[in-house]
From TrEMBL:
Protein name: PBS lyase
Spans annotated as Disordered: 194-230
Superkingdom in the source lineage: Bacteria
Alphabetized Gene3D superfamilies for the sequence: Leucine-rich Repeat Variant
Pfam family of the protein (one): HEAT_2
InterPro entries associated with the record: ARM-like, ARM-type_fold
One GO MF term: oxidoreductase activity
Compositionally biased region (Polar residues): 194-204
Amino acid sequence: MGSEQQIAFFLRELKDGDTWRRAAAAKGLGRAGRDEHAWVLVTAADDRAPEVREAVAAGLGRLGVAEAGRAALPALMGDEDPWVRRRASRAAIRLGLDGPATVDAYARLLRDPDRHLRINALDGLGALGLPGHAPALVALLGDEDPAVWGRARVLLYRLLDDPAVSAEVLRTAEQGADAARVRALELLPGKWPSASTTHWSRGSTPCPPRCGSRWPPGCSTSRPRGRGTP
C-alpha cells in the first residue's frame, strides 16, 4: 500500500495528465492503491487512449477487487486494441471472474486472431470449467498453434459430458477438415463406443484419416510393420 501522498498524486495524474502520465497513474494505483481505488480505475476504463485502458486492466487485476473487475473487464476484453484485450483477459483470470458477461467475453476471444488471446480465453474457460461457445471451442482443434489446440483438446475432454460439446465434437469428427477432424476423432474412444459406424465399428479404435504420407500410430489401417520395416 502506498502513502497518501503517492495515491493523491496518482489520482491527480489520472484525471489531468497526458496519455503516458494517465497510464502511469493507473499502473501506480494498481500497485499502491486500496480497494476503493479499484472503482476509480473503473471510471477510467473508457479512456480514449488504449495505453490507459491497458493500464487500467492491469491495475484492476493487481488490486484484486472482483466486483470492480466485473464492472469493467468484460468490456475491455472486447476492446479494439489487442494489448488491452490481453491485459483485461489476464486480469479476469487473475480475479477468477465468472458470470455471463465474462464467459461471453472469453467465448468471443476463442476466435481472436491473436494467439495469446485464444490461449487466455482457453485458460479462463478452463478455470471455470465451461466451454464458452462449443463450435468455437471445437474449431480450435484445427488451430495451427500447439499451445492453442492442445489446451482446447484438454478442455474438450473434460467437457465431453456437455451435450452441446459432445454433439459438436461428433459433428467435427464426421464432417470436419484435416487436423480438426483427426483430433476430434481422438477424443471419441470410450465416449461413444457405437457412434458413427461410418468411421469405426463397435469396440475398434477410431482411425483418423491419413495425414500426408504417415498413418497415426494405433490406427487399425496403419501400414503393417513387417520384417525389415524400420
